[in-house]
Write a sequence for this structure.
């Protein structure tokens, strides 16, 4: 019997960067919760973004935010994995040298940007619903930082391959999230590790877990579930790793499977 369902957001439930979820998900999630099934949202997004998208059920879902570096439930922190301040500063300096890239530096409750690009700023505040603080110099921010993200409008992964990833992949966990983002968090930290800790906390096995994902940063999470689904628009590497394939995000593939789960109970 399924006791835990975890899902990615961007590319899996919604089109990358969208701030709205099909409202038909909410009653289905509530019915699953009523059946005793724990529901986990696992994403590279911030807590504020998750709260916006899942507002009708926000008090009942476990949030794996910031790619696994921050986990919370009902307002209480379950896990947090800060990056050492000297490493944050060095990363910021490295990204500053890259052309056409923006930096998003995240604390647990807000994220910081230096950008002067109004279009980019509107996108992350109005579509992603990030709690954004605009600063003159990221190096002067005193907050505890749990994630640093490199943004490029078309191919962040390619930009990161120009020396940045090679330098940092031995010191941090580097995760490609869609075409626009490369997320840097503490080593040993990812959605899969966070999900595994949740499974241990509630005594839930891999055989009792269902997971949905579409991108490289979902691979570790898929390994923690017998019922691992790649959606139809997922990357080929993800489809190869998953045990099952669902319909695409625009066809609400996850919703279709969740309804099948309810029908089987």
């Amino acid at each position: 019997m399924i006791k835990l369902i975890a899902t990615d957001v961007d590319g899996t439930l919604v089109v990358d960067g969208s701030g709205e979820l099909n409202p038909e998900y909410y009653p289905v999630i509530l019915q699953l919760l009523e059946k005793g099934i724990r529901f986990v949202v696992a994403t590279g997004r911030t807590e504020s973004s998750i709260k916006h998208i899942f507002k009708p059920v926000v008090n009942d879902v476990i949030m794996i935010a910031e790619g696994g570096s921050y986990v919370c439930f009902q307002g209480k922190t379950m896990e947090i994995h800060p990056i050492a301040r000297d490493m944050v500063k060095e990363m910021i300096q490295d990204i500053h040298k890259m052309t056409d890239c923006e930096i998003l530096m995240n604390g647990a409750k807000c994220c910081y940007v230096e950008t002067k690009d109004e279009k980019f700023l509107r996108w992350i505040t109005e579509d992603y619903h990030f709690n954004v603080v605009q600063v003159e110099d990221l190096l002067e921010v005193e907050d505890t930082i749990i994630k640093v993200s490199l943004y490029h409008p078309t191919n962040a992964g390619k930009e990161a391959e120009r020396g940045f990833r090679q330098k940092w992949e031995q010191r941090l966990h580097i995760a490609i999230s869609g075409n626009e983002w490369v997320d840097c968090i503490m080593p040993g930290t990812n959605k899969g590790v966070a999900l595994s800790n949740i499974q241990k906390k509630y005594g839930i096995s891999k055989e009792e877990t269902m997971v949905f994902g579409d991108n490289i940063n979902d691979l570790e999470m898929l390994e923690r579930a017998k019922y691992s689904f790649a959606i139809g628009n997922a990357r080929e590497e993800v489809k190869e790793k998953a045990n099952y394939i669902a319909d695409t995000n625009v066809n609400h593939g996850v919703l279709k499977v969740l309804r099948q789960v309810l029908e089987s109970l």
User: Anything to note?
Assistant: The chain has a mean pLDDT of 94. The two ends are 8 Å apart (CA to CA).
